[in-house]
Amino acid sequence: MSEQLKRDYEIGEEIGRGRFGVVHRCVSRATGEPFAVKSVDRSLLADDLDRALAELEPKLARLAGGEGDENPGVVQVRAVYEDDAWTHTVMDLCTGPDLLDWVRLRRGAPVPEPDAARVVAQLAEALAGCHRRGVVHRDVKPDNVLLDLDPAGETPPRVRLADFGSAAWLGGGEGGGRRRGAEGLVGTPHYVAPEVVAGGEYGEKVDVWSAGVVMYALLSGGALPFGGETPADVFAAVLRGSLRFPPALFAGVSPAAKDLMRRMMCRDVSRRFSAEQVLRHPWIQSGGGVREVVRPTPT
Predict the structure, then answer these.
(1) Quick one: pLDDT at residue 15?
(2) Binding site for ATP, residues?
(3) Mean pLDDT along residues 133-161
(4) Domain 10-92 sits in CATH 3.40.50.2300
């Protein structure tokens, strides 16, 4: 590891591992605060796309998080260190599991709508902040949604979007300028949007499609809307985009929740919701049916 990194942080146990990198717990020697450090071995990056994504990841994660934690739904990058072969990114340490493990712990039981609405609202808020800054995540899935849990169990989990290793910058953002499209088959088959599979350019609404798949998994107890035996089968199902709600899984799910999922997983990109529109949907506004939506009185 980088000598400067080891001078600044005490490196602890491994807490995660991916295709090219490993995540360790670490502690700031100056403040005693706990963090996580993701270390990517650039020598294992076999092609130009992987190398480009690895170089961009810490930059786009910082941009998505904004200055001064403006986008708290994104895991914040605190420092980046590089040596001859490795890139080490120090980031916030989340105290809970990822969303995938959180769902699995329920052993097939669906997440209640009020809890699911809180998760989807926080995820949409994080994505809206990314998109305003011109960043598209491109790999929104439960594994990349981390939870901060209240040890006392008195407050709901706080959702944090992580892993910008597949992200792209569309240009523009809050500073203005023309936006361009992203390209490339990037992401995870069950969660990827149809326009990504089809090829050509696409925009930030690919993240909304993926968040819709996450919402479907929450409310179904872990089932996914588009499946298949092989990645090619899954991609074919995604391209067809035939969204169904089997009664065995969705009989108890409200019409409002199904309406939002249809709008998030809409094949027609021009009609698909943006992250901001997700936040304004009645199901989100009502907290998954917990409270009535107060609508302004016509004047």
Answers:
(1) 86
(2) 38
(3) 87
(4) no
Where is the binding site, in residues?
38
User: What was the pLDDT predicted at 272?
Assistant: 97
The phi and psi torsions of 40 (rounded to 5 degrees) equal -110, 125
What residues act catalytically?
139
Number of residues assigned to the chain: 299
pLDDT value, residue 294: 41
Determine the pLDDT at residue 133. Answer: 92
Query: With pLDDT > 70 as the criterion, what percentage of the chain qualifies?
Result: 91
The CATH architecture assigned to 97-286 reads Orthogonal Bundle (1.10)
